[in-house]
Design a protein that fits this description.
The structure holds 2 protein chains of 2 kinds.
Chain A lengths: L1 H28 E8 L6 H18 L2 E2 L2 E9 L4 H13 L5 E4 L3 H14 L3 E3 L14 E3 L4 H14 L4 E7 L2 H16 L3 E8 L7 H10 L3 E5 L5 H10 L8 E5 L5 H4 L10 E4 L8 H14 L5 H19 L6 H8 L3 E4 L2 E5 L6 E13 L2 E13 L8
Parallel strand pairs in A: 1-3, 1-4, 4-5, 5-6, 7-8, 7-9, 9-10, 10-11
Antiparallel strand pairs in A: 2-3, 11-14, 12-13, 13-14, 14-15
Chain B lengths: L1 H30 L7 H19 L3 H22 L9 H23 L15 E4 L2 E4 H23 L1 H11 L1 H6 L4 H27 L5 H16 L5 H20 L4 H15 L12
Antiparallel strand pairs in B: 1-2
Helix pairs in contact in B: 1-5, 1-8, 1-9, 1-10, 2-3, 2-8, 2-9, 3-8, 5-6, 6-8, 9-10, 10-11
The chains are: A alpha/beta, B mainly alpha.
């Protein structure tokens, strides 16, 4: 029995030794990207768009960069922060990933932040939009957007374009409050007045009473932020209640007219003016190719989440190119800072100080193009930084 | 003044919708003493059937509504015969675990087949928009809901009170042993009632797509509302849940309109107050079986 124990111990030692000998050789030529995305649950469309975009990018650009093979590992967190954390731990400890990316909602991105700091690996945020995220770890870089970017711009625009009285309807959670506060700050600074302020519960079955209140307040426009899935319901009830005929416009950050759902919203949505970072109707050649390729591969229109994912994987490629394949996390984050490139949404860059995205914000109006509803851009605010960072 | 009436109208429509969705649950819970948390899954099934027929096969909306009822009832009868039947005699905990499992399976199945995004049913133009009656805004769709649900309620009450089937059902509920001794086929009565309740849920699901939104998480999101209706209304008749639905619908709409900050809590506050006042619900029988 004694002998057997010795035997099993040596066997185990040998096994470990051989594993150790194989592992580094493998790690040298593959770079692993751990994607944590909501693939199920209410946010699943975000996860699917980002995954699709990454697949598309890798089809177009190959899976090797600076002599390394890129391997994507997708984990589903259903947008629940506890699961995000577990997934990040597994990816970092077991799979030894070189990047973590994705993050459908703000709490998910925040849950992974301390792990990215500890493990010293870049966390590329491709969806979540609250300003504070990049302040939570020096390893966080963002390729999506912040709500401050779009909400401040629509506030400035509205007040300059004859909208004096606004009623607001926002979902009562962090991004909704961000959108409301930044809008209010800029809109009232320009001389506008917020006549009615309603926060709707996140799981809101029926907008009717809130909309009736909006209608009775008789504003020039309603400022709306609701999570992506609820935009359609909101627009339908807005029309049903005749707010469009009462001359009350809808304005807001672009989430309410997300390309993913826009076409199913019906004609009530026509004329809605939003400020956002991406429209599938962006007139550049690059975007036309991107939209065509995406439609061909996945049979649907790409939304802003898809573009954020496309740019996220591009940033990872670009960083690896710059470090010549060096996978040291600190060097990779350094390499990401100040990157500038042309995205389907227009020219974008990574702010070297905040590691947040700098991009054009477009004012768009919903119009019918070839029988389909699109956000048609008509004014551009160039190179907008995130205005929501903690003031120092 | 006019906005009070518009709110009242919206509240009644919302309450009627809750009633159609939840009255099947009142039947299974109150009459059959079975806790069916998967009730919303049948509503979702009806909603998706209606959506597919209208959007993809070009059926008129009003022709698809009965089909939503029939298909949900058919699914109900199949599941009742194969699965539910075995759990009638089991404890409530077993029933809860079984039906909540079924709910999660339905969510995953619909998510897999139809995707997770919210779907809408293409409505005929005649049902869209609002018209004014003496300055009171009346939504066409909501008016249709009130008409359909009102007729259904009257019909149900007639069937339960006046027909032979109604008396058999009441007998089977009051004392299943004595009823079967009198030659009433109790399992058959229960199966039919269960299927009918599922059918109503399916119809409710199809009607609610426009107002509540239809996605694969429907059964989980609205389970709490169904349960509130049944607990507040009591589950011994259908009048109780009907009045409870109206009360909650109007209360919810008025609360959100007049005190938007407190809005979401109004419905829960009402439930708590009513249950403290009458623990068996508004119309509960004091001596449950």
């Amino acid at each position: 029995m004694f002998e057997r124990r010795i035997f099993s111990r040596t066997a185990a030692a040998a096994a470990i030794a051989s594993l150790a000998a194989v592992a580094p050789a493998k790690a040298e030529d593959t770079v692993k990207v751990g994607m944590i995305l909501p693939m199920t649950g209410g946010q699943a469309s975000t996860g699917k768009q980002i995954e699709n975009a990454i697949k598309l990018y890798m089809q177009q650009n190959g899976d090797t960069v600076a002599g390394k093979k890129i391997e994507i590992i997708v984990k589903d967190d259903a947008a629940i922060p506890d699961k995000t954390k577990t997934a990040a731990q597994e990816l970092i400890v077991n799979d030894k990933v070189n990047f973590i990316g994705g993050f459908g909602v703000t709490p998910a991105a925040l849950a992974a932040a301390p792990l990215a700091t500890q493990a010293k690996i870049p966390e590329v945020v491709m969806a979540a939009g609250t300003s504070i995220i990049t302040e939570r770890s020096p390893y966080i870089v963002r390729t999506s957007f912040t709500l401050a970017q779009s909400s401040t711009i629509i506030g400035d625009w509205a007040v300059k374009n004859g909208i004096k009285k606004v009623a607001t309807l926002t979902s009562d959670y962090a991004p909704g409050n961000d959108a409301l506060n930044f809008f209010k700050e800029h809109f009232t600074a320009g001389g506008g007045e917020v006549v009615e302020e309603v926060k709707t519960p996140l799981a809101n079955p029926d907008f009717a009473p809130f909309l009736q209140r909006m209608k009775d307040a008789k504003p020039d426009a309603i400022f709306v932020f609701v999570p992506a899935g609820q935009g359609g319901n909101f627009m339908k009830q807005y029309a049903e209640r005749g707010l469009d005929k009462a001359g009350i416009k809808v304005i807001g950050p672009g989430d309410v007219t997300d390309d993913d759902l826009l076409n199913n919203m019906g004609d009530a949505v026509l004329g809605t003016v939003t400020a956002h970072i991406y429209s599938a109707a962006h007139p550049s050649q690059m975007n036309k190719d991107f939209v065509a390729a995406y439609k061909k591969a996945f049979g649907s229109r790409p939304g802003f989440m898809a573009v954020s994912g496309y740019d996220g994987i591009h940033l990872i490629y670009a960083a690896l190119k710059k470090t010549n394949g060096d996978t040291d996390g600190t060097k990779l984050v350094e390499a990401m800072k100040g990157q500038k490139w042309e995205s389907p949404r227009g020219p974008i860059s990574i702010d070297p100080e905040t590691r947040d995205i700098v991009q054009n914000v477009y004012i768009r109006k919903v119009e019918k193009v070839d029988g389909e509803l699109y956000n048609v851009e008509f004014q551009t605010f160039e190179a907008v930084k995130d205005l929501g960072k903690t003031k120092k | 003044m006019t906005s009070i009436l518009t709110n009242l109208f919206d509240g009644v429509a919302y309450g009627m919708l809750l009633f159609v969705l939840a009255c099947g649950l009142a039947v299974t819970l109150g009459l059959m003493n079975f806790v069916n948390l998967a009730h919303g899954a049948f509503a979702m099934a009806g909603g998706y059937v209606c959506m597919l027929l209208v959007n993809q096969h070009g059926w008129p909306f009003f022709a698809a509504l009965p089909l939503a009822f029939v298909s949900a009832a058919a699914i109900g009868i199949v599941l009742e015969r194969t699965l539910y039947r075995h759990l009638y005699a089991r404890s409530h905990l077993d029933q809860v675990l079984f039906t909540i499992g079924l709910t999660f399976m339905s969510v995953a199945a619909v998510d897999y087949i139809q995707g997770s995004s919210r779907v809408f049913i293409n409505l005929p133009d005649a049902l869209q928009g609002q018209f004014d009656v003496f300055g009171v805004g009346i939504g066409r769709y909501r008016l249709m809901i009130i008409v359909i649900c009102g007729l259904l309620t009257v019909g149900l009450q007639m069937v339960l009170a006046k027909t032979r089937f109604g008396s058999r059902l009441r007998a089977a509920v009051d004392d299943p042993r004595a009823a079967s001794g009198l030659g009433i086929n109790v399992p058959q009565v229960f199966a039919f009632t269960f299927a009918f309740g599922c059918g109503l849920a399916g119809l409710g699901g199809a009607l609610s797509a426009e107002i509540l939104g239809l996605d694969p998480y429907f059964p989980l999101k609205f389970m709490i509302y169904f349960l509130i209706v049944v607990t507040v209304g009591g589950s011994s008749s259908i009048t109780g849940p009907f009045l409870a639905s109206l009360l909650l619908g109007i209360g919810d709409v008025a609360g959100k309109y007049y005190v938007p900050k407190m809005g979401p809590f109004v419905i829960y506050t009402m439930m708590i107050v009513i249950l403290i006042w009458r623990p068996n619900g508004l119309f509960g029988r004091t001596a449950a079986r």
